[in-house]
């Protein structure tokens, strides 16, 4: 097994996604008058994105089968996860009422603008169209995932994919249900992290790839012990970036998380550690529908003054160390372990 090149894997996944949108590939499955649907989803999928889930899926397979006979089924499976992620993001942006994603207009905004100035309500059309386009991306994810796997591989992979979809949907619901509640319930914040990110972003893509490669129990166990802390660290970094990140880098306004009142570990810790005046101010601002950037500055000051930022940074460091310790094992190919270390580093040190 040669060196695992993460950029090469991303390139292969991007090529598979671009190839999927080729008219010859989609022929027979698309009706007339739906070109705009294809163009909008294609633009969304092929522009930006870290591709962390497909990369981890490939690494999970290579952990189980370092020299796969053919890479095409593996890359399609990984690309299918990215297509599924696009479906999740399209719907997530509707729920969060986000105007931008990756520095570009979100799908519901693009679709709304197509009807701007007409008799039809552009905003409502955009929302409805985004729901439909997200569903279509979900169907395409299945098409990509299944088109090259053997029956045996599908038998191992499909239960893992079903579990991933269950987990991320439950996580989305908990996130939606708890938003704006201004609760100090740390257990709920931990559950949301576990379902929305630790499982969905890191462990489940690894386990799906590992299942396709017919991984041993030992390999699956190592991937779990690595994936869970990396996923938690990834989400905690996301929470910090949601308030302290540079919008020009993250591609999203810093007001989004605050406006939605996201129930994050940041907020639960701050509410617990805050003085009564700080807690009252935070409760007033977090979840305020029309929060301004100046008010987000006040939120930042409270998060810093309560020691919340320092505490979360320490948690990220602890999760990072736990993930690296899990890789100290003879059960993974050296090249895969090295690539997973790189991904763990990138998950905690990123600025977007």
Automatic annotation (TrEMBL):
Organism this protein belongs to: Saccharopolyspora hirsuta
Gene3D superfamilies, per the entry: Farnesyl Diphosphate Synthase (1.10.600.10)
Family matches, as InterPro entries: Isoprenoid_synthase_dom_sf, Polyprenyl_synt, Polyprenyl_synt_CS
GO MF entry, a single one: metal ion binding
SUPFAM superfamilies for the chain: Terpenoid synthases
GO biological process, one term: isoprenoid biosynthetic process
Identification of the protein by name: Polyprenyl synthetase family protein
Keyword annotations from UniProtKB, A to Z: Magnesium, Metal-binding, Transferase
The protein's required cofactors: Mg(2+)
Recorded superkingdom: Bacteria
Family in the record: Belongs to the FPP/GGPP synthase family.
Database matches in PANTHER family: GERANYLGERANYL PYROPHOSPHATE SYNTHASE, SHORT CHAIN ISOPRENYL DIPHOSPHATE SYNTHASE
